[in-house]
Amino acid sequence: MKRPALAATCGVLLAAPLFAQEDDLAVIRAYAERHVVPLAQEEVLAAAAREQTHRLAGLSRQDILDRDAEWRAQTDLETRPLIDAVLEHPAADFLRAHVDAAEGAITDIFLMDGHGLNVAATSVTSDYWQGDEAKFLETHEKGAGAMHVSEVDFDTSTQFYQADVSLPVIDRFGEVVGAITVGLNAEYLF
Question: How many domains does the chain have?
Answer without folding.
Answer: 1
